[in-house]
Amino acid sequence: MEMELLRTNLSKVRIPEPTNRIYKQECCISFDTPKSEGGLFVDMNTFLAFGKDYVGWNFEKTGNPVYLHIKQTKKPIPEDRPLKKPTLLAIGIDGGFDNQELEYDETYNIVILPDYVTFPFPSVALPEKVFLCFYFMVLHLSFLCSFLIWEIFSSRLVQSIQRLILVSAQVRLAVDAILIAEGAERKEQVASWTADKKQTSEYALTLKQIDNGVIIPPSGWKCAKCDKTDNLWLNLTDGMILCGRKLWDGSGGNNHAIDHYNETRYPLAVKLGTITSDLEGADVFSYPEDESVTDPLLAEHLAFFGIDFSSLQKTEMTTAEKELDQNTNFDWNRIQESGQEVEPLVGPGYTGLVNLGNSCYLAATMQVVFSTHSFCSRTKLANGLLSGKYSVPAVQKDDVANAADSSQDAKQEGVRPRMFKADALEFFLHLIDQVERVNAGKPELDPGRSFKFGIEERLQCPSGKVAYNKRHDYILSLSIPLEKATNKKELEEFHKLKAREEAEGKEMSSDEIVRPRVPLSDCLNIFSAPEEVPGFYSTALNAKTTAIKTAGLTSFPDYLVLHMRKFVMEAGWVPKKLDVYIDVDDIIDISHMRSKGLQPGEELLPEGGPGGQEESEKLLPNEDIVSQLASMGFNHLHCQKAAINTSNAGVEEAMNWLLSHMDDPEAESNEVDPSKVATLVSFGFEEEIARKALKASGGDIEKATDWIFNPTASGPSDMDATSSSGPTVDATLPDGDGKYRLFGLVSHIGTSTQCGHYVAHVYKEGRWVIFNDDKVGISKNPPKDMAYLYFYERIRN
């Protein structure tokens, strides 16, 4: 009976081709997964996945009745499961931080709607083998029987067997192809959060070494140009031993190794103290490539200077190990509140987001954003986070005793934000921009509008005349004036102690480190403080000159997001993170930052000039700034935009602007990629709908699929800066008093922009809550002074 029902619907079963995208890890409409109570149903015609609540809807919409049902059930946790110590700066891979992932058994069924007729797989393939054997037996008998007997006995039987074999084979091939294929969701995710793998240096194979009689002893090394005895690097060309780079806080070396490279251009150096019999662990640095590399001929290069690596012991940490050590010490423990009993929270508003490898920044930001009133009632993610449906413990009460550590108690099944994975590495601005796009022409429905505000810059040239430039933004990006630190005496004493201990070859513990403390009020004040703008074209003087710029806000948003510029430029134009505390108040007043616009007695700069009206209205980008940024790999047009939006203030300012506006939209073509249209058509959608969806979603297939199920208007963003004169009020922007209360933090753990982990803290129902991916619990000590993003809500009278 079941096989006959399956046979009648065989035309709706497709065997996926290599080009088909197969969704089998998360429902397209909700956040149901195979781990959910109802499991996941994969449409065997379109290969889209649906949870139990939506599979019937899909059947009514498409008429596709045959589904592969996937269900995962949790395996018990072994009582002796050890807690592993990390050896790599990574999460979720061997050697990385152990996030205590649970293990699951997986079962499959073929389900036919609308009556949910169910039979298991792979036993559905059993008839195929039986009938094949029987079929070939009948064929064999046909050669032994008379033609008449064969005609009478076997004709209809063989036809029935052939039909059953066809049904069984097609279903089996389709299911096998679905199970074997890598899920479309998985293809979009990075499997782990880790620093980039070291590449083989192009200079290693052709390195020329100078025979100058240098023999390197097995110990007792010292910098050839100073008294440093640690952080020493051996140049593999001439055998010089020199100290490493000086860091922004005074630690590290005295730059003698990099200075030597700048003088000689000898490219490779190896860190002494990291060389052992395992040469793969040695820390080799390439100066022209400006990164740690692999030297496949390192044994030969060391032997050239008499070094027997097999007898050496490790005495120094590699660059990666130092970063790992810093991550596992103070920042990691403080921000994640490790070592403290975290009371787990579940239910509506307390749903975690599972880390997909490098989606922690997305998770941390989304938890804060979806704690605002304007986002609570919007989008699939809002339902997933706030409904409480997915906020259930991953470890049941009976299993808690078996967990390897107490932090496991706070872990949930949570939501896996796969449909947002294309944006997982993108910043808060990208989310706001996408929300604004789908609500184009309907500002009253745009929840992102509650973050939007106006910025007005006043530029005064030496003629005394002024110009006003206005733009819209969603974050207030603040520089951190380290010179305003309130603990300068403690810092001075710390650096003296550090220098003494380094001279004695001692390592400082993390709790001995003293970090600068800068008040948030000073960061806000520096935003509005006057600054010089070189290269400003004055239409009054008909020449480029230096102008004075001040800035203020033309409106105060419902929610104010403060972005702390902790990533700055160091030697070699490498973005690094400032190790600094920001002293923040729970309540702030920014009323003094409101822009006043054109004042009585001020005279605007005239229009016109050598470049015409367009040149006078636009600030031209400083080409020195643009070329330096472009040499670092940034898009040339982005570099020009960064220079203009920072009024040519300098490379560091433009770099900070780029880092916080990584996702401003490009001008998009109206053309649609035919291959993407074909992909959507292969899902079962009509070509006209596929084209419309791709145009509305900027050519992104996942977003186009979501658009088809939830069609909304889409249009361009108005993120670009606008220029005008006078204090024009934008009535479309929210506005009100300048008093705000802190309600959210997003903190970053790590020492560079290339790796790290993000954690959110949100003030909910009179208490602080920590959202560390899928771990949610009551926060006892929120790291208010360590955040990267601060979220404030306007206090309403």
Automatic annotation (TrEMBL):
One of its GO terms (molecular function) is cysteine-type deubiquitinase activity. It is an enzyme of class 3 (hydrolase). Residues 598-607 have a biased composition (Low complexity). Residues 598-617, 712-731 are annotated as: Disordered. It comes from the Eukaryota. The keyword Zinc-finger applies. Pfam families: UBA (PF00627), UCH (PF00443), zf-UBP (PF02148), zf-UBP_var (PF17807). SUPFAM superfamilies: Cysteine proteinases, RING/U-box, UBA-like. One of its GO terms (biological process) is proteolysis. Its EC number is 3.4.19.12. Residues 712-727 have a biased composition (Polar residues). The chain crosses the membrane at residues 130-153. Residues 351-795 form the USP domain. Residues 199-309 form the UBP-type domain. Residues 614-661, 671-711 form the UBA domain. Keywords: Hydrolase, Membrane, Metal-binding, Protease, Repeat, Thiol protease, Transmembrane, Transmembrane helix, Ubl conjugation pathway, Zinc, Zinc-finger. Zn(2+) binds at residues 223, 226, 243, 256. It catalyses: Thiol-dependent hydrolysis of ester, thioester, amide, peptide and isopeptide bonds formed by the C-terminal Gly of ubiquitin (a 76-residue protein attached to proteins as an intracellular targeting signal). The active site is at residues 360, 757. Recognizes and hydrolyzes the peptide bond at the C-terminal Gly of ubiquitin. Involved in the processing of poly-ubiquitin precursors as well as that of ubiquitinated proteins. Belongs to the peptidase C19 family. This is Ubiquitin carboxyl-terminal hydrolase.
